[in-house]
Amino acid sequence: MTNHTVLVVDDDKEIRDGIEIYLKNEGLQVIQAKDGIGAIAALDEHEIHLILLDIMMPQMDGITATFKIREQRNIPIIMLSAKSEDTDKILGLQIGADDYVTKPFNPLELIARVKSQLRRYVTFGQFEEESDTVRVNGLVLDQEAKQVTVDGEPVRLTPIELKILSLLMIHAGRVFSIDEIYEKVWKEPSFNAENTVAVHIRKIREKIEINPKNPRYLKVVWGIGYKIEK
Amino acid sequence: MTNHTVLVVDDDKEIRDGIEIYLKNEGLQVIQAKDGIGAIAALDEHEIHLILLDIMMPQMDGITATFKIREQRNIPIIMLSAKSEDTDKILGLQIGADDYVTKPFNPLELIARVKSQLRRYVTFGQFEEESDTVRVNGLVLDQEAKQVTVDGEPVRLTPIELKILSLLMIHAGRVFSIDEIYEKVWKEPSFNAENTVAVHIRKIREKIEINPKNPRYLKVVWGIGYKIEK
DNA sequence: CACACTTCTTAAGGAATTCTTCATTTTTAC
DNA sequence: GTAAAAATGAAGAATTCCTTAAGAAGTGTG
Protein backbone atom coordinates (compact mmCIF):
# COMPACT_ATOMS: atom_id res chain seq x y z
CA MET A 1 0.00 0.00 0.00
CA THR A 2 3.00 2.25 -0.21
CA ASN A 3 4.78 4.10 -2.95
CA HIS A 4 1.73 5.06 -4.92
CA THR A 5 1.55 8.19 -6.97
CA VAL A 6 -1.51 10.40 -7.06
CA LEU A 7 -2.17 12.97 -9.73
CA VAL A 8 -4.03 16.01 -8.42
CA VAL A 9 -5.81 17.99 -11.12
CA ASP A 10 -7.38 21.32 -10.17
CA ASP A 11 -7.10 24.83 -11.51
CA ASP A 12 -6.72 26.32 -8.05
CA LYS A 13 -3.17 26.05 -6.83
CA GLU A 14 -4.15 26.48 -3.21
CA ILE A 15 -6.39 23.49 -3.36
CA ARG A 16 -3.75 21.41 -5.11
CA ASP A 17 -1.20 22.33 -2.46
CA GLY A 18 -3.64 21.65 0.35
CA ILE A 19 -4.44 18.21 -0.96
CA GLU A 20 -0.78 17.49 -1.57
CA ILE A 21 0.00 18.08 2.09
CA TYR A 22 -2.55 15.52 3.18
CA LEU A 23 -1.53 12.91 0.68
CA LYS A 24 2.18 13.29 1.38
CA ASN A 25 1.40 12.98 5.03
CA GLU A 26 0.05 9.53 4.19
CA GLY A 27 3.24 8.58 2.42
CA LEU A 28 1.89 9.05 -1.06
CA GLN A 29 3.71 10.71 -3.89
CA VAL A 30 1.94 13.61 -5.55
CA ILE A 31 2.05 15.15 -8.99
CA GLN A 32 0.05 18.22 -9.83
CA ALA A 33 -1.65 19.32 -13.00
CA LYS A 34 -3.70 22.46 -13.44
CA ASP A 35 -6.00 21.22 -16.20
CA GLY A 36 -7.03 18.26 -18.30
CA ILE A 37 -4.32 18.81 -20.89
CA GLY A 38 -1.66 18.85 -18.18
CA ALA A 39 -3.20 15.75 -16.65
CA ILE A 40 -2.87 13.75 -19.83
CA ALA A 41 0.69 14.93 -20.24
CA ALA A 42 1.47 13.87 -16.68
CA LEU A 43 0.01 10.45 -17.36
CA ASP A 44 2.53 9.96 -20.14
CA GLU A 45 5.45 11.08 -18.07
CA HIS A 46 4.77 9.40 -14.74
CA GLU A 47 3.43 6.19 -13.42
CA ILE A 48 0.21 7.37 -11.88
CA HIS A 49 -1.90 5.12 -9.70
CA LEU A 50 -4.84 7.36 -8.95
CA ILE A 51 -6.28 10.65 -10.15
CA LEU A 52 -8.02 13.32 -8.13
CA LEU A 53 -9.87 15.36 -10.69
CA ASP A 54 -11.74 18.63 -10.34
CA ILE A 55 -14.87 18.60 -12.42
CA MET A 56 -14.85 22.32 -13.19
CA MET A 57 -11.71 23.31 -14.99
CA PRO A 58 -10.83 25.68 -17.80
CA GLN A 59 -9.67 24.34 -21.13
CA MET A 60 -10.98 20.85 -20.71
CA ASP A 61 -13.56 20.09 -18.14
CA GLY A 62 -13.33 17.15 -15.77
CA ILE A 63 -15.89 15.01 -17.46
CA THR A 64 -14.27 15.31 -20.86
CA ALA A 65 -10.93 14.63 -19.23
CA THR A 66 -12.31 11.47 -17.72
CA PHE A 67 -13.16 10.21 -21.18
CA LYS A 68 -9.70 10.93 -22.51
CA ILE A 69 -8.02 9.32 -19.53
CA ARG A 70 -10.14 6.24 -19.72
CA GLU A 71 -9.20 5.90 -23.35
CA GLN A 72 -5.58 5.65 -22.32
CA ARG A 73 -5.50 3.64 -19.15
CA ASN A 74 -7.74 2.18 -16.55
CA ILE A 75 -6.86 4.19 -13.48
CA PRO A 76 -9.04 4.92 -10.46
CA ILE A 77 -10.48 8.41 -10.67
CA ILE A 78 -11.94 10.37 -7.80
CA MET A 79 -13.85 13.45 -8.81
CA LEU A 80 -13.88 16.71 -6.91
CA SER A 81 -16.57 19.27 -7.36
CA ALA A 82 -18.03 22.32 -5.71
CA LYS A 83 -21.42 21.29 -6.93
CA SER A 84 -23.37 19.14 -4.60
CA GLU A 85 -26.30 18.51 -6.89
CA ASP A 86 -27.08 14.90 -7.29
CA THR A 87 -27.35 15.18 -11.02
CA ASP A 88 -23.68 15.99 -11.28
CA LYS A 89 -22.81 13.28 -8.87
CA ILE A 90 -24.52 10.57 -10.78
CA LEU A 91 -23.27 11.91 -14.06
CA GLY A 92 -19.69 11.88 -12.85
CA LEU A 93 -19.88 8.36 -11.59
CA GLN A 94 -21.60 7.04 -14.66
CA ILE A 95 -19.06 8.56 -16.95
CA GLY A 96 -16.16 6.96 -15.29
CA ALA A 97 -15.21 8.25 -11.90
CA ASP A 98 -14.78 5.57 -9.27
CA ASP A 99 -15.74 7.89 -6.48
CA TYR A 100 -16.89 11.41 -5.96
CA VAL A 101 -16.23 14.08 -3.32
CA THR A 102 -17.93 17.43 -3.09
CA LYS A 103 -16.18 20.60 -2.05
CA PRO A 104 -15.82 21.69 0.63
CA PHE A 105 -14.67 18.27 1.61
CA ASN A 106 -13.42 16.78 4.80
CA PRO A 107 -9.75 16.00 4.25
CA LEU A 108 -9.98 12.85 6.29
CA GLU A 109 -12.80 11.60 4.18
CA LEU A 110 -10.84 12.34 1.04
CA ILE A 111 -7.85 10.40 2.30
CA ALA A 112 -10.06 7.49 3.27
CA ARG A 113 -11.50 7.38 -0.22
CA VAL A 114 -8.10 7.64 -1.84
CA LYS A 115 -6.81 4.78 0.24
CA SER A 116 -9.90 2.75 -0.46
CA GLN A 117 -9.38 3.11 -4.19
CA LEU A 118 -5.68 2.35 -3.98
CA ARG A 119 -6.34 -0.74 -1.95
CA ARG A 120 -8.03 -2.24 -4.95
CA TYR A 121 -4.90 -1.88 -6.99
CA VAL A 122 -2.39 -4.69 -6.77
CA THR A 123 1.04 -5.55 -8.01
CA PHE A 124 -0.10 -6.67 -11.40
CA GLY A 125 -1.71 -3.38 -12.09
CA GLN A 126 -5.13 -4.88 -12.14
CA PHE A 127 -8.14 -4.41 -10.01
CA GLU A 128 -8.61 -6.89 -7.33
CA GLU A 129 -12.13 -7.75 -6.40
CA GLU A 130 -12.11 -6.53 -2.87
CA SER A 131 -13.91 -8.82 -0.52
CA ASP A 132 -16.82 -6.55 0.03
CA THR A 133 -18.84 -8.81 2.23
CA VAL A 134 -19.13 -8.61 5.97
CA ARG A 135 -20.42 -11.62 7.85
CA VAL A 136 -21.68 -11.46 11.40
CA ASN A 137 -23.68 -14.23 12.96
CA GLY A 138 -26.19 -15.12 10.25
CA LEU A 139 -26.10 -11.60 8.87
CA VAL A 140 -24.32 -11.00 5.58
CA LEU A 141 -23.68 -7.58 4.13
CA ASP A 142 -22.69 -7.40 0.49
CA GLN A 143 -21.35 -3.89 0.14
CA GLU A 144 -21.05 -4.08 -3.60
CA ALA A 145 -24.56 -5.29 -4.15
CA LYS A 146 -25.77 -3.06 -1.34
CA GLN A 147 -27.70 -5.92 0.09
CA VAL A 148 -28.12 -7.66 3.39
CA THR A 149 -29.26 -11.21 3.90
CA VAL A 150 -30.44 -12.87 7.09
CA ASP A 151 -29.81 -16.59 7.01
CA GLY A 152 -29.69 -16.41 3.25
CA GLU A 153 -32.92 -14.48 2.96
CA PRO A 154 -32.43 -11.13 1.25
CA VAL A 155 -33.70 -8.12 3.17
CA ARG A 156 -35.12 -5.09 1.46
CA LEU A 157 -33.64 -2.02 3.15
CA THR A 158 -34.01 1.66 2.40
CA PRO A 159 -30.82 3.64 1.75
CA ILE A 160 -30.61 5.07 5.23
CA GLU A 161 -31.40 1.76 6.84
CA LEU A 162 -28.64 0.19 4.79
CA LYS A 163 -26.15 2.84 5.85
CA ILE A 164 -26.97 2.43 9.52
CA LEU A 165 -26.82 -1.34 9.38
CA SER A 166 -23.60 -1.26 7.37
CA LEU A 167 -21.98 0.98 9.94
CA LEU A 168 -22.98 -1.30 12.77
CA MET A 169 -22.04 -4.47 10.90
CA ILE A 170 -18.66 -3.26 9.70
CA HIS A 171 -17.77 -2.40 13.27
CA ALA A 172 -19.72 -5.28 14.76
CA GLY A 173 -19.46 -5.49 18.51
CA ARG A 174 -18.70 -1.83 18.93
CA VAL A 175 -21.37 0.32 20.50
CA PHE A 176 -22.39 3.46 18.64
CA SER A 177 -24.23 6.27 20.35
CA ILE A 178 -27.20 7.78 18.58
CA ASP A 179 -25.23 10.95 17.94
CA GLU A 180 -22.40 8.95 16.47
CA ILE A 181 -24.72 7.06 14.17
CA TYR A 182 -26.34 10.27 13.06
CA GLU A 183 -23.03 11.95 12.31
CA LYS A 184 -21.63 9.02 10.41
CA VAL A 185 -24.74 8.39 8.35
CA TRP A 186 -26.07 11.88 7.77
CA LYS A 187 -22.62 13.46 7.77
CA GLU A 188 -23.58 16.45 9.83
CA PRO A 189 -23.45 17.16 13.54
CA SER A 190 -26.42 15.83 15.39
CA PHE A 191 -28.54 18.21 17.36
CA ASN A 192 -31.88 16.69 18.08
CA ALA A 193 -31.85 13.45 16.20
CA GLU A 194 -32.57 10.89 18.87
CA ASN A 195 -35.97 9.85 17.66
CA THR A 196 -35.02 9.91 14.04
CA VAL A 197 -32.36 7.32 14.58
CA ALA A 198 -34.57 5.38 16.95
CA VAL A 199 -37.29 5.07 14.37
CA HIS A 200 -34.85 3.79 11.78
CA ILE A 201 -33.48 1.30 14.25
CA ARG A 202 -36.97 0.08 14.84
CA LYS A 203 -37.53 -0.31 11.09
CA ILE A 204 -34.31 -2.25 10.69
CA ARG A 205 -35.28 -4.52 13.53
CA GLU A 206 -38.61 -5.11 11.92
CA LYS A 207 -36.81 -6.35 8.85
CA ILE A 208 -33.92 -8.37 10.22
CA GLU A 209 -35.22 -9.68 13.51
CA ILE A 210 -37.59 -12.57 14.00
CA ASN A 211 -38.83 -10.97 17.16
CA PRO A 212 -38.12 -7.23 17.15
CA LYS A 213 -39.08 -6.97 20.81
CA ASN A 214 -36.28 -9.31 21.70
CA PRO A 215 -33.65 -8.64 19.09
CA ARG A 216 -31.02 -11.22 18.32
CA TYR A 217 -28.70 -9.04 16.26
CA LEU A 218 -29.35 -5.37 16.82
CA LYS A 219 -28.92 -4.85 20.52
CA VAL A 220 -29.33 -1.75 22.61
CA VAL A 221 -26.85 -0.94 25.35
CA TRP A 222 -28.70 1.08 27.88
CA GLY A 223 -27.66 4.68 28.12
CA ILE A 224 -24.99 4.23 25.49
CA GLY A 225 -26.27 3.18 22.11
CA TYR A 226 -26.69 0.33 19.69
CA LYS A 227 -24.53 -2.44 18.34
CA ILE A 228 -24.64 -5.58 16.28
CA GLU A 229 -23.95 -8.64 18.37
CA LYS A 230 -20.75 -10.26 17.24
CA MET B 1 -13.04 8.75 24.11
CA THR B 2 -11.77 10.49 27.17
CA ASN B 3 -8.58 12.23 28.08
CA HIS B 4 -8.17 14.15 24.89
CA THR B 5 -6.28 17.38 24.72
CA VAL B 6 -7.48 20.38 22.77
CA LEU B 7 -5.28 23.26 21.76
CA VAL B 8 -7.16 26.57 21.67
CA VAL B 9 -5.50 29.21 19.52
CA ASP B 10 -6.88 32.73 19.59
CA ASP B 11 -5.39 36.14 20.21
CA ASP B 12 -8.20 37.13 22.53
CA LYS B 13 -7.62 35.75 26.00
CA GLU B 14 -11.27 36.12 26.96
CA ILE B 15 -12.35 33.88 24.11
CA ARG B 16 -9.66 31.33 24.95
CA ASP B 17 -10.74 31.24 28.57
CA GLY B 18 -14.39 30.99 27.65
CA ILE B 19 -13.80 28.07 25.35
CA GLU B 20 -11.59 26.43 27.93
CA ILE B 21 -14.40 26.43 30.46
CA TYR B 22 -16.75 24.64 28.09
CA LEU B 23 -14.20 22.08 27.01
CA LYS B 24 -13.05 21.31 30.53
CA ASN B 25 -16.64 20.87 31.49
CA GLU B 26 -16.71 18.03 28.97
CA GLY B 27 -13.71 16.38 30.56
CA LEU B 28 -11.27 17.55 27.92
CA GLN B 29 -7.85 18.89 28.66
CA VAL B 30 -7.06 22.32 27.29
CA ILE B 31 -3.90 24.08 26.27
CA GLN B 32 -3.91 27.66 25.09
CA ALA B 33 -1.82 29.51 22.55
CA LYS B 34 -2.22 33.10 21.53
CA ASP B 35 -0.90 32.81 17.99
CA GLY B 36 0.32 30.45 15.32
CA ILE B 37 3.88 30.48 16.59
CA GLY B 38 2.74 29.53 20.06
CA ALA B 39 0.50 26.86 18.59
CA ILE B 40 3.37 25.15 16.82
CA ALA B 41 5.44 25.30 19.98
CA ALA B 42 2.59 23.75 21.93
CA LEU B 43 2.35 20.95 19.40
CA ASP B 44 5.94 20.04 20.12
CA GLU B 45 5.50 20.11 23.84
CA HIS B 46 2.17 18.37 24.31
CA GLU B 47 0.23 15.54 22.84
CA ILE B 48 -2.57 17.45 21.17
CA HIS B 49 -5.58 15.70 19.69
CA LEU B 50 -7.51 18.60 18.20
CA ILE B 51 -6.94 22.26 17.43
CA LEU B 52 -9.41 25.11 17.67
CA LEU B 53 -7.88 27.81 15.52
CA ASP B 54 -8.88 31.41 15.05
CA ILE B 55 -8.50 32.44 11.45
CA MET B 56 -7.63 36.08 12.21
CA MET B 57 -4.51 36.34 14.30
CA PRO B 58 -1.51 38.64 14.42
CA GLN B 59 1.94 37.36 13.50
CA MET B 60 0.78 34.34 11.60
CA ASP B 61 -2.76 34.04 10.37
CA GLY B 62 -4.85 30.95 10.83
CA ILE B 63 -4.64 29.76 7.28
CA THR B 64 -0.88 29.91 7.19
CA ALA B 65 -0.80 28.22 10.56
CA THR B 66 -2.95 25.43 9.20
CA PHE B 67 -0.39 24.73 6.54
CA LYS B 68 2.46 24.66 9.01
CA ILE B 69 0.57 22.41 11.36
CA ARG B 70 -0.42 20.01 8.62
CA GLU B 71 3.19 19.77 7.60
CA GLN B 72 3.98 18.50 11.03
CA ARG B 73 1.12 16.28 11.96
CA ASN B 74 -2.30 15.34 10.76
CA ILE B 75 -4.54 16.62 13.51
CA PRO B 76 -8.19 17.59 13.25
CA ILE B 77 -8.53 21.35 13.01
CA ILE B 78 -11.65 23.37 13.66
CA MET B 79 -11.48 26.94 12.47
CA LEU B 80 -13.01 29.87 14.28
CA SER B 81 -13.75 33.08 12.51
CA ALA B 82 -15.69 36.27 12.92
CA LYS B 83 -16.34 36.27 9.22
CA SER B 84 -19.42 34.48 8.15
CA GLU B 85 -19.03 34.89 4.43
CA ASP B 86 -19.25 31.65 2.59
CA THR B 87 -16.16 32.37 0.55
CA ASP B 88 -14.03 32.29 3.64
CA LYS B 89 -15.78 29.23 4.89
CA ILE B 90 -15.09 27.22 1.82
CA LEU B 91 -11.55 28.48 1.58
CA GLY B 92 -10.83 27.46 5.14
CA LEU B 93 -12.16 23.99 4.67
CA GLN B 94 -10.45 23.48 1.38
CA ILE B 95 -7.15 24.47 2.77
CA GLY B 96 -7.22 22.14 5.63
CA ALA B 97 -9.67 22.69 8.40
CA ASP B 98 -11.90 19.77 9.17
CA ASP B 99 -14.71 21.94 10.35
CA TYR B 100 -15.58 25.57 10.67
CA VAL B 101 -17.42 27.65 13.26
CA THR B 102 -18.26 31.32 12.93
CA LYS B 103 -18.14 33.74 15.81
CA PRO B 104 -20.23 34.44 17.70
CA PHE B 105 -20.79 30.74 18.10
CA ASN B 106 -23.17 28.66 20.11
CA PRO B 107 -21.06 26.89 22.76
CA LEU B 108 -23.14 23.74 22.52
CA GLU B 109 -22.63 23.61 18.81
CA LEU B 110 -18.90 24.11 19.23
CA ILE B 111 -18.73 21.27 21.69
CA ALA B 112 -20.78 19.05 19.43
CA ARG B 113 -18.37 19.69 16.60
CA VAL B 114 -15.32 19.15 18.77
CA LYS B 115 -16.66 15.83 19.94
CA SER B 116 -17.63 14.88 16.44
CA GLN B 117 -14.12 15.46 15.16
CA LEU B 118 -12.55 13.57 18.04
CA ARG B 119 -14.85 10.64 17.42
CA ARG B 120 -14.19 10.68 13.72
CA TYR B 121 -10.49 10.56 14.33
CA VAL B 122 -10.79 7.78 16.79
CA THR B 123 -12.61 5.61 14.28
CA PHE B 124 -9.89 6.20 11.78
CA GLY B 125 -7.66 4.46 14.26
CA GLN B 126 -5.22 7.27 14.73
CA PHE B 127 -5.14 7.60 18.45
CA GLU B 128 -7.20 4.95 20.07
CA GLU B 129 -5.73 4.87 23.53
CA GLU B 130 -6.07 2.38 26.34
CA SER B 131 -6.38 -1.29 25.54
CA ASP B 132 -9.98 -2.16 25.05
CA THR B 133 -10.26 -5.11 27.37
CA VAL B 134 -9.46 -5.32 31.03
CA ARG B 135 -9.11 -8.75 32.60
CA VAL B 136 -9.18 -9.35 36.33
CA ASN B 137 -9.66 -12.78 37.79
CA GLY B 138 -12.52 -14.20 35.74
CA LEU B 139 -13.91 -10.74 35.09
CA VAL B 140 -13.53 -9.27 31.62
CA LEU B 141 -14.45 -5.72 30.71
CA ASP B 142 -14.75 -5.01 27.00
CA GLN B 143 -14.72 -1.25 26.81
CA GLU B 144 -15.57 -1.16 23.15
CA ALA B 145 -18.62 -3.35 23.44
CA LYS B 146 -19.41 -1.82 26.82
CA GLN B 147 -19.82 -5.25 28.22
CA VAL B 148 -18.64 -7.24 31.19
CA THR B 149 -18.44 -11.02 31.32
CA VAL B 150 -18.00 -13.26 34.34
CA ASP B 151 -16.37 -16.53 33.38
CA GLY B 152 -17.51 -15.92 29.82
CA GLU B 153 -21.09 -15.19 30.78
CA PRO B 154 -22.19 -11.74 29.67
CA VAL B 155 -23.61 -9.55 32.41
CA ARG B 156 -26.32 -7.02 31.77
CA LEU B 157 -25.35 -3.82 33.58
CA THR B 158 -27.04 -0.44 33.74
CA PRO B 159 -25.01 2.60 32.69
CA ILE B 160 -24.10 3.62 36.22
CA GLU B 161 -23.32 0.09 37.21
CA LEU B 162 -21.05 -0.21 34.20
CA LYS B 163 -19.27 3.00 35.06
CA ILE B 164 -18.68 2.00 38.65
CA LEU B 165 -17.47 -1.46 37.76
CA SER B 166 -15.26 -0.11 34.97
CA LEU B 167 -13.65 2.31 37.38
CA LEU B 168 -12.94 -0.42 39.89
CA MET B 169 -11.77 -2.90 37.28
CA ILE B 170 -9.45 -0.54 35.44
CA HIS B 171 -7.75 0.24 38.73
CA ALA B 172 -8.21 -3.23 40.15
CA GLY B 173 -6.74 -3.66 43.58
CA ARG B 174 -7.04 -0.02 44.46
CA VAL B 175 -9.60 0.96 47.07
CA PHE B 176 -12.04 3.73 46.20
CA SER B 177 -13.98 5.58 48.84
CA ILE B 178 -17.67 6.11 48.30
CA ASP B 179 -17.11 9.82 47.76
CA GLU B 180 -14.42 9.09 45.23
CA ILE B 181 -16.64 6.72 43.32
CA TYR B 182 -19.45 9.21 43.35
CA GLU B 183 -17.30 12.02 42.06
CA LYS B 184 -15.72 9.95 39.32
CA VAL B 185 -18.94 8.42 38.09
CA TRP B 186 -21.42 11.24 38.54
CA LYS B 187 -18.85 13.93 37.83
CA GLU B 188 -20.11 16.16 40.58
CA PRO B 189 -19.09 16.60 44.20
CA SER B 190 -20.61 14.03 46.47
CA PHE B 191 -23.06 15.49 48.92
CA ASN B 192 -25.16 12.86 50.53
CA ALA B 193 -24.49 9.93 48.33
CA GLU B 194 -23.37 7.19 50.66
CA ASN B 195 -26.44 5.09 50.28
CA THR B 196 -26.81 5.75 46.61
CA VAL B 197 -23.45 4.25 45.85
CA ALA B 198 -24.02 1.44 48.29
CA VAL B 199 -27.20 0.45 46.53
CA HIS B 200 -25.47 0.35 43.19
CA ILE B 201 -22.66 -1.73 44.65
CA ARG B 202 -25.25 -4.11 45.92
CA LYS B 203 -26.86 -4.33 42.46
CA ILE B 204 -23.51 -5.01 40.84
CA ARG B 205 -22.79 -7.76 43.32
CA GLU B 206 -26.14 -9.28 42.60
CA LYS B 207 -25.14 -9.54 38.98
CA ILE B 208 -21.50 -10.57 39.11
CA GLU B 209 -21.24 -12.54 42.33
CA ILE B 210 -22.38 -16.09 42.89
CA ASN B 211 -22.92 -15.31 46.54
CA PRO B 212 -23.36 -11.57 47.10
CA LYS B 213 -23.07 -12.05 50.85
CA ASN B 214 -19.59 -13.36 50.41
CA PRO B 215 -18.30 -11.52 47.36
CA ARG B 216 -15.43 -12.96 45.39
CA TYR B 217 -14.68 -9.92 43.24
CA LEU B 218 -16.17 -6.77 44.66
CA LYS B 219 -14.77 -6.47 48.17
CA VAL B 220 -15.40 -3.90 50.82
CA VAL B 221 -12.53 -2.51 52.88
CA TRP B 222 -14.07 -1.55 56.12
CA GLY B 223 -14.12 2.15 56.87
CA ILE B 224 -12.43 2.98 53.57
CA GLY B 225 -14.30 1.86 50.51
CA TYR B 226 -14.57 -0.74 47.75
CA LYS B 227 -12.23 -2.49 45.39
CA ILE B 228 -12.05 -5.26 42.86
CA GLU B 229 -9.87 -8.12 44.04
CA LYS B 230 -6.87 -8.47 41.79
C1' DC C 1 -49.62 17.52 -13.97
C1' DA C 2 -52.07 14.60 -11.01
C1' DC C 3 -51.71 10.27 -8.88
C1' DA C 4 -49.99 6.55 -6.29
C1' DC C 5 -46.15 4.97 -3.86
C1' DT C 6 -42.14 4.97 -0.97
C1' DT C 7 -39.19 7.00 2.32
C1' DC C 8 -37.94 10.25 5.91
C1' DT C 9 -38.87 13.13 9.84
C1' DT C 10 -41.28 14.67 13.77
C1' DA C 11 -44.21 14.46 17.71
C1' DA C 12 -46.46 12.30 21.53
C1' DG C 13 -47.84 8.74 24.60
C1' DG C 14 -46.87 4.59 26.80
C1' DA C 15 -43.96 0.98 28.51
C1' DA C 16 -40.11 -0.45 30.63
C1' DT C 17 -36.17 0.23 33.13
C1' DT C 18 -33.31 2.59 36.23
C1' DC C 19 -32.15 5.88 40.02
C1' DT C 20 -32.66 7.72 44.42
C1' DT C 21 -34.32 7.91 48.93
C1' DC C 22 -35.61 6.25 53.32
C1' DA C 23 -36.35 2.97 56.81
C1' DT C 24 -34.68 -1.17 58.63
C1' DT C 25 -31.63 -4.98 59.39
C1' DT C 26 -27.17 -7.02 59.55
C1' DT C 27 -22.33 -6.93 60.17
C1' DT C 28 -18.00 -5.26 62.03
C1' DA C 29 -14.66 -3.39 65.31
C1' DC C 30 -13.53 -2.23 69.86
C1' DG D 1 -22.67 -4.65 74.37
C1' DT D 2 -22.47 -0.74 71.74
C1' DA D 3 -21.73 2.38 68.08
C1' DA D 4 -20.43 2.93 63.48
C1' DA D 5 -20.48 1.10 58.97
C1' DA D 6 -22.50 -1.62 55.54
C1' DA D 7 -26.22 -4.12 53.42
C1' DT D 8 -30.96 -4.73 52.25
C1' DG D 9 -35.77 -3.99 50.64
C1' DA D 10 -39.26 -1.47 48.85
C1' DA D 11 -41.51 2.51 46.65
C1' DG D 12 -41.87 6.61 44.12
C1' DA D 13 -39.43 9.63 40.86
C1' DA D 14 -36.93 10.11 36.89
C1' DT D 15 -35.04 8.66 32.79
C1' DT D 16 -34.69 6.17 28.66
C1' DC D 17 -36.41 3.52 25.12
C1' DC D 18 -40.03 1.90 22.08
C1' DT D 19 -43.97 2.39 19.28
C1' DT D 20 -47.39 4.43 16.58
C1' DA D 21 -49.20 7.57 13.51
C1' DA D 22 -49.37 11.44 10.56
C1' DG D 23 -47.54 14.51 7.48
C1' DA D 24 -43.62 16.16 4.47
C1' DA D 25 -40.67 15.23 0.91
C1' DG D 26 -39.25 12.77 -2.80
C1' DT D 27 -39.84 9.37 -6.91
C1' DG D 28 -41.88 7.28 -10.72
C1' DT D 29 -45.86 6.70 -14.05
C1' DG D 30 -49.44 7.49 -17.15
Automatic annotation (TrEMBL), chains A, B:
It comes from the Bacteria. The modification 4-aspartylphosphate is found at D54. Residues 131-230 bind DNA. It comes from Jeotgalibacillus terrae. Residues 5-118 form the Response regulatory domain. InterPro entries: CheY-like_superfamily (IPR011006), OmpR/PhoB-type_DNA-bd (IPR001867), Sig_transdc_resp-reg_C-effctor (IPR016032), Sig_transdc_resp-reg_receiver (IPR001789), WalR-like (IPR039420), WH-like_DNA-bd_sf (IPR036388). This is Response regulator transcription factor. Pfam families: Response_reg (PF00072), Trans_reg_C (PF00486). Residues 131-230 form the OmpR/PhoB-type domain. PANTHER family: REGULATOR OF RPOS, RESPONSE REGULATOR SAER. SUPFAM superfamilies: C-terminal effector domain of the bipartite response regulators (SSF46894), CheY-like (SSF52172). Keywords: DNA-binding, Phosphoprotein, Transcription, Transcription regulation, Two-component regulatory system.
